[in-house]
Amino acid sequence: MDELLLNSNLRLYFSAQFISEYNFIGAEIFAKLRTGGPILREKPTTPFIVLPEEARFAPLVKKSRFALDIGGTLVKLVYSTVCERSIGGEPDVLLNFKKFTGIEACLEFIKENWHDRVSDDVLHCTGGGSFKYAEMMHKSLGVKVKRTDEMRSLIFGCDFLLKNNEDESFTYHHEAVGIERYQYKPIDTDSIYPFLLVNIGTGISVLKVDSQSTFQRVGGSSMGGGAFIGLGHLLTSAQNFDDLLLMAEKGDHRKCDTLVCDIYGGSYENLNLPGDLIAGSFGKCSRIGKHSSESDIAKSLLLMISNNIGQEPGVFIRKRS
Amino acid sequence: MDELLLNSNLRLYFSAQFISEYNFIGAEIFAKLRTGGPILREKPTTPFIVLPEEARFAPLVKKSRFALDIGGTLVKLVYSTVCERSIGGEPDVLLNFKKFTGIEACLEFIKENWHDRVSDDVLHCTGGGSFKYAEMMHKSLGVKVKRTDEMRSLIFGCDFLLKNNEDESFTYHHEAVGIERYQYKPIDTDSIYPFLLVNIGTGISVLKVDSQSTFQRVGGSSMGGGAFIGLGHLLTSAQNFDDLLLMAEKGDHRKCDTLVCDIYGGSYENLNLPGDLIAGSFGKCSRIGKHSSESDIAKSLLLMISNNIGQEPGVFIRKRS
């Protein structure tokens, strides 16, 4: 994730890394609540980006904002904080990202961290949980809860980033190494639309987006993050998404998957299928079965699901071209 | 499988069922090898079809034929036998189907059952294993081994069945019950092509077939029978494909899968997604995890893989229409 933002205006920091890179010494918290001045905080322990100094972000210096996306698997919180610069100047406005596996823990966190909230404040929410938990959130936090349609918010956000963030989009080159894999290219703001938006949540939605306000769902599947975490939980000892990814990094999928060369002894020329192509995910597990290593299984699962996610939009793109 | 052939000219029998239905008393095996007469055998213990009385099948009364498809997961054998009719008349020619998980067991079976084989006989083979095991098969059986391209054979076979077997194709109605689900309709032989052929093996290939000899692979995925059996083996105590299907029949996928109503409390109107649609396969397993029942897991796995198989061709069909 960090790698992906190297060429971006909006840089993502994980706090430990930020502290070592910038020799940051924890600033004291001194609340200027009710005086109208900024509430300076320590750098948060969650990943964050430092917002550019632009007029549209200035109100965030005076007033915190919190917003939630409550999906089928995770609750995602984004909120603003203000932080004193280590080397003088105006304070930085940070946009912080935190995820929870349940709404209760999330509300506790918001209560503890949204100090300047008053009853007129609005907690903006998207996702299915914004219907289910609206009353609970209002009672717990004492602020207004406003639902916004998930897909419209998503498209609005994409539009904002593509238009405002230089080099937001990149071409991926699998054969290259490290950062070379991501070939950034500034996008012409006049030629953003139409695009296909593949929304990876618990499941997958593929949207054809014709403008900021016109879109239709053209496809989707039940195999997204929910299947990755759910199957990962059943198949391995990993406790969460990050554990599972770390596990997969060490694995060799060729021990679980049947490759074209396992069936044909090489490539299958008549259909132009190379020998190292995965013919059948987990195909070898019907024999080696429960003796497969956890990391090989995690890698095979990651490839099965991520390849599958890439496939449906690929068909639509071929259709268009 | 049997249900699907009820309206068909070619009826599939599982032997136990055949024996009870037709009150069949095992005919004595008396080999007429070298006399040119038919080699009468007992009804085999494998599933079979009785071939119609047609001139093109007559040579099979005189001479057995054996053919193999050696895939990445299973070895499939089809062979002819001749069987005395229980109620007089000409003997029946049976086409028998048997599957093996390894080539060795298959070759043993062929040796024991292909009595009239001579060195000029040809064992026709398709599949990746026809490359890997050609020499082994020749040495073991003492017959010639001839490879045929898998996809060409498949298309030839489809063409043959669609043209010769009345009501070979049907429309599936999920909401109906039992046999009513399959609405058979004879196919006009002039309008067979073009069609999409979804070949479900270890993995999936989607072929656009324009004629008996012209086709191209337009898609495919690594999630087919190999993934079903491999993951099924890792996740449950089922020992094989049939066990896994029986297990799935008793399961309730809603205990493993996250439905749209689990996220939204009902349907998601903005995207026209009904409440009982699977939003994320195995989405609930990240929480209930290893306490899920085996049959619920098997059902969820079956739906994940079969829905996924249906999806890609669906996109191509929408593309065409």
TrEMBL record, chains A, B:
Q: Which GO terms describe its biological process?
A: coenzyme A biosynthetic process
Q: Name the domain of life this protein comes from.
A: Eukaryota
Q: Which GO terms describe its cellular component?
A: cytosol; nucleus
Where would one find the signal peptide in this protein?
none
Annotated keywords: ATP-binding, Coenzyme A biosynthesis, Nucleotide-binding
Q: Which PANTHER family match?
A: 4'-PHOSPHOPANTETHEINE PHOSPHATASE, PANTOTHENATE KINASE
Name the UniProt record assigns to this protein? Pantothenate kinase
Q: What is the originating organism of this protein?
A: Angiostrongylus costaricensis (Nematode worm)
